[in-house]
Predict the 3D structure of the following.
Amino acid sequence: MATNMRLGILTWRNGRYIEEITFFTHLAQEAGKLNTEVLLFAPQDQLRSGQIRALVYEKGKGWISKICNRPDIVYDRFRNMKPEAFRKFVHFRSRTPLPFLNSRLAHKWNLHRFLNTQPQIAKWLPETAPMDSPKAALRMLSKYPMIYIKPVNGTGGKGILSVTRKVAQHFLAVGRDHRRNKIKKSFSSLAALSSFIASWTKNSNYIVQQGLNLQWEPGLVTDFRLLVQKNGNGSWEVTGLGGKIGGKDSATSNLHGGGKAVKPELFLKRYLSPSKCQEVFEECHQLGLQAAQILEGKFGRLTELGIDLGIDKEGKVWIIEINNKPGRDIFHKMGDVETYRKAVRRPVEYARYLFDNHQL
């Protein structure tokens, strides 16, 4: 029988409110089957004694507050990018002696710059540049009919804007602000558009990216989420691929923003031949495993990557974004409960592999 292990989950909380609590509950239930106790805590919950004030899941009772000994290993799920919360998180990660299951990645622009130096990955990257001023966006818009403007540290589709050149000096901007409110504005001059972009980007660092034609049907943006995870033997595997169709007039297909999950094979076979579908799926798998190896070589131990992919009407695959703290709801929402359960369980299996093989 496996020795008991304490798996810490570093997250953000505000009083009793914990982000991602449904996922953590499912993870704790799976962990219980693997002789693993889950301790939920935030950076401010480390006590001077070295113990932590944690929420511990107990079957039939839910999450109970307890003072606990330090976890054996920590799974970092801290995703709050607001400056004050993020500063506390960075300070905690840099000072704590606790071992982590997953290293931090660079922000979007630095990550793109690194991947662009890797020939096996660069072929899948859309053109991207830092947004030092609205001029960078206008330069990109002069090359492509549509661009994306993204915060370098954003999550969940917040702060992303798409700008489309309609005719001559007419432009359409569609996006979600930092409260996820939908924004849709038309502009009849570059000056008006430039002024809007300046106000949109004034409080954070942004990148600008070549827009991709991901509208398989008018007004509906489609992309795909590839989940690559370490398994219980410490090896990378593709857990699954999910499709996301955006809400009408949405800048992204993000599920938080009214998007709908679809099974990729059912969606793509309406538009591509069976052999082309197979080719696309094989390319996605190859891309995911290569990206995981390369990023782990650069940034240190990783557990999982969520890779957002664009597939255009010619069947060309593009990397939109890579996230090392991915959600996995997409599999549940498209009705694939088995893949969802595997996606929840895998971080625990990998943590157990490290613990049982004394690799912490």
